[in-house]
Write a structure and sequence with these properties.
This protein has 386 residues and is α/β, with parallel strands linked by helices. It contains 15 helices and twelve strands. The protein has a seven-stranded parallel beta sheet, sandwiched between helices. A five-stranded parallel beta sheet has the order 10-9-8-11-12, sandwiched between helices. Helix 5 packs across helix 6. The chain is globular. It starts with a strand and ends with a helix. 45% of the residues are buried.
């Protein structure tokens, strides 16, 4: 039996790397039996993903594919152009998967967006009788579509990574659902060189994505909140600020956001950007683990902080952030909706709470984390029953 990962994408989103490595560690199969569909095999090999899973390069849609897609669209007008695009993008990879295998549909919050390749890949394999698992996922009522409901019923197993999504799935009447932590929680930090300023300073790690800053605009609602926080940090504390890019994809590159922030506060001589380009997920986790505080917009950066018991504010904008924090028994003040136009709880208030309650938060994480992370391996029992 082999496990196929059609939605791995590539490690320039370090969260995709974390999911791939964590999943391989949990399943415990040979890398020859774990096959990922990669958009950038060279990068994924450099990050060490190829040590965990076998990588197959993603095939571009050919001219012949386009012709066949056009004909199929004419013959089947009920198919959307998007569904046909995904069908032809993934069909060569999906053809390898037999009824003896299992498809692992990764991506975490892919079901929090519009109808996409999750629906298409799962429905194709379901029709062929292949077992499929929606892996480490989140989804809420605001993400619901009838098409998603149909494909959710078609999954052999749904592994929700937090209880709010689990309860949502159960309220839909789905029976094939379990709730366990995100697979990336099981990974250990990988020791790497720390930036020199760690020796003389207490450091706050901050990860800000272009999505929550609205295109790198510090004049947005959240940009103003962030500026108030940074002004407070530089004026009222001695903390050193380390900006930590976690997604490096074109159009979603955290390094661009970090550059805007760093340029504003360069004269303080207490701010730097981590060079994430040559660091893998576990090395970034090691650096996060050496920070005193962490504030993060990317879920898998926040997971690195939680997993190493660093008091953290999650800049949540969907059910996943609230659900993970709830399951870790963290106060709701540690979740800030970075996309809200108006918030009863601003970022600076949350940070002062983080400082004031630092030890209690750290103690809570220390008490919960060992058992919480270990429980992730229970997914193997559910897979074996498939």
């Amino acid at each position: 039996m082999k496990y196929f990962f059609p939605l791995h994408f590539d490690g320039d989103n370090r969260g995709c790397e974390g999911i791939a490595k964590g999943t391989a560690s949990i399943i415990g199969a040979s890398k020859n039996d774990l096959i990922g569909y990669s958009r950038n095999v060279e990068l994924d090999s450099r990050l060490g993903i190829s040590d965990y899973i076998s990588l197959i390069p993603q095939h571009p849609v050919t001219v012949i594919d386009k012709i066949q897609k056009k004909i199929e669209g004419i013959l089947n007008p009920e198919f959307s152009r998007t569904d046909l695009y995904f069908k032809y993008q993934y069909r060569k990879f999906l053809k390898q998967i037999t009824t003896n295998d299992i498809m692992i549909s990764t991506g975490g919050d892919m079901m929090c967006y519009g109808n996409n390749m999750v629906n298409v890949t799962n429905n194709i394999l379901h029709e062929r009788g292949v077992r499929t698992v929606l892996w480490g996922c989140s989804m809420g009522e605001q993400n619901y579509t009838p098409e998603k409901h149909e494909t959710l019923r078609n999954f052999s197993l749904i592994y929700a990574r937090e209880s709010l999504s689990y309860n949502f799935f159960k309220n839909l009447g789905l029976k094939n659902v379990v709730c366990l932590p995100d697979p990336a929680f099981v990974l250990e930090p990988q020791v790497t060189a720390l930036p020199s300023f760690f020796g003389d300073n207490e450091v706050i790690g901050i990860n800000i994505s272009p999505y929550i800053l609205k295109g790198n605009n510090m004049c947005s609602t959240f940009g103003k909140e962030l500026k108030s926080l940074l002004d407070f940090i530089f004026n009222e504390t001695k903390l050193y600020v380390l900006l930590i890019p976690h997604v490096l994809w074109h159009g979603q590159d955290d390094r661009e956001t970090a550059s805007v922030i760093e340029n504003m506060y360069r004269k303080t001589n207490r701010i730097s950007i981590l060079d994430s380009t040559n660091l893998n997920y576990q090395q970034i986790r090691f650096i996060i683990s050496k920070c005193k505080f962490f504030i993060g917009g990317r879920t898998h950066a926040v997971i690195s902080a939680y997993s190493t018991c660093i008091p953290t504010i999650a800049l949540g904008y969907s059910i996943k952030s609230k659900g993970i924090a709830k399951d870790l028994e963290l106060n709701e003040k540690l979740i800030v909706n970075a996309t809200a136009q108006n918030s009863k709880l601003n970022l600076l208030n949350s940070f002062t709470y983080l400082m004031d309650d630092y030890q209690n938060i750290k103690d809570t994480l220390f008490s919960i984390m060992p058992t919480y992370k270990l429980s992730t391996f229970l997914i193997k029992d559910y897979i074996s029953k498939l």
